[in-house]
Amino acid sequence: MDLIATYQSNIQNIYNRIKDLYSKASPYFDQDVQLPDLQVVKLNNPTDLLNRVVYQWTVSCIQRLQMVMNNVVGDFNDNDIIDEDIGDTPELKLWLPERLVVDDIYMLKLQNNFDECNELLDKLNSYAQEYMNY
Predict the structure, then answer these.
(1) What is the pLDDT at residue 32?
(2) Looking at residue 1, what is its pLDDT?
(3) Are 72 and 88 in contact (CB under 8 A)?
(4) d(CA 21, CA 51)
């Protein structure tokens, strides 16, 4: 298991989905919207060791992912591309790593973060799809 590659590939896939979502939904935005900065946080001097630098990098990655996702949610809410029955889409609160030990629980919680992001993007895409069908 390559922890760094897991973070980078999953986050890059989510960012690619965001780019696609914005290209589909942007004609339906009432306000000017800037695509969030979708650069995956790079780790200086990657290592196989789980040390404080890697730990801080993992926290930074998740915080940045949460910020980007919540920017997307804000853009969709501000432009009323929402679930008409529920209203505004709530912001995302992702799990943050709290220890240097990477075990099954850690990997499950990390995967849950990525799954939550993808599920949220699926919802936002379905809201945008409704506008495209009019």
Answers:
(1) 83
(2) 55
(3) no
(4) 36
Residue 123 Cα distances to 42, 85, 98, angstroms = 29, 13, 29
CA-based nearest residue to 55, from 39, 43, 65, 67? 43
Residues of the chain with pLDDT under 70: 1, 46-49, 134
E strands present in the chain = none
Say what the alpha-carbon torsion angle 81, 82, 88, 92 is, to the nearest 10 degrees. Answer: -90
pLDDT attached to residue 134: 62
What is the rounded CA–CA span in Å between residue 48 and residue 63?
A: 22
Tens-place pLDDT, residues 36-70:
889 998 887 766 667 888 889 999 999 999 999 99
Coil vs helix vs strand at 83:
strand
> Residues 117, 69: contact at Cβ < 8 Å?
yes
Joined tokens for residue 100: 């240097």
**Maximum distance among all alpha carbons in the chain?**
53
Integer angstrom CA distances of residue 60 from 4, 86, 125: 12, 31, 26
The backbone torsions φ and ψ at residue 64, rounded to the nearest 5 degrees and listed phi first, read -65, -40
